[in-house]
Specification:
Layout lengths: L16 E3 L11 E3 L8 E11 L5 E10 L2 E8 L4 E8 L2 E2 L16 E8 L2 E6 L2 E8 L7 E6 L4 E11 L5 H12 L3 E8 L8 E5 L11 H9 L3 E5 L4 E9 L5 E10 L6 H15 L6 H5 L1
Antiparallel strand pairs: 1-12, 2-11, 3-8, 3-12, 4-5, 4-11, 5-6, 6-7, 8-9, 9-10, 13-14, 13-17, 15-16, 16-17
Amino acid sequence: MPSRDPNAPVMTSHAVVAQMGGLPINLYFPILVFDGDQFDDFTFSTRFKIVGGGVAEMGGIVFRYQDPKNYYVLTASVLDKRFWFFKFVNGVRSDKLIGPAIDIAKDQWREMTVRCEGNHIHCLLDGKEIIPMITDSSFMKGKVGFWTKSDSVVYFTDAKLDFTPRETLAQTLVSDTVNEFSKLQGMKIFAIRPGDTNAVVVASNDAKELRQPGGKTESDVIRNGRSYIARNKKAGIVTVTAPLRDRNGDMIAAVAFTMKTFIGETDDTAALKSQTMMKKIQPRVTSLEDLLQ
C-alpha cells in the first residue's frame, strides 16, 4: 500500500443526527424528542447545519414538548432569513413569530440555545441572545428535542442539556414526613409504573433503595388495598405498609413506614401511628402521574 501523502488533509468523523427524508408538504413537521424525562428549568443547546430542502430549509429545537400538537419551537430558516420563536397550542401555530431577520447561511454550522427559567424563555444564536426574553406560561415543563419543517435536510450535533433534577412528589412526601416524625426510621413508597407489572421503590429516605423491586406484600397493598404489619424484635422496629390512594379513592401506591417500637406497643398502636402520617400525605396526592412527576 502506498504511503499516505503527509500533506493530505486530515479526515475526521463526527456523529450527527440528521433529518433526511421529509415530505414536500408545508404543514409537515418532523420531530425527534428525548422520551426519557420532562424538564422545567433547563438550558438546551445544539450545533446545526441546514443543507437542503425545497419547500423549506428550516431546523431547530423543540422544547417543553407535551404532544405533537403542543410545544415551543426555536428555529432558523435559510429561505426566510429569520431566527424565530413560536408555539403550537392544540395543533394551531401562534400568529406571532418572534425573532429578528438574520442571514442563516446554508451548509454552515451554527449554534442555537434555549434557556427556560419558570415562564421566562431565553433564545440565543451563537451565544448571543438576539431575541428579547420571552414570557409565556403555556407550557411549564415538557420534553426536548429537534424540530424541522417539510423537506428540510438538517444536521444536528453536540447537543447539550443542563438542568437540575426535579424532586418527584413521591420523594418530597418522603422527605417531609421523615423530617416531621422523629420516630420514623425509614420510609419507602412503592408504585407500579405505567407499562410495568411489578412494584418498585419510587421514593425513599435512602437513595440506594430507589428502583429496587417490591415484593408480594407491596403488590398486594396496591392491588387489593390491604395493610400489613411486620416486626423485627431484634432491631426494635415495626414496619407498617399501607395503601396510598388517588383523588378517586383508587389504590396507586404502597407506603412502608418503619418506626421504633416501645415496650407494650401493639399492632393497633403501630397502625394508628402510620395512619397519623398517612393523613398528612394523602391530601397532597391526586394521581399516580402526579406522584411520579
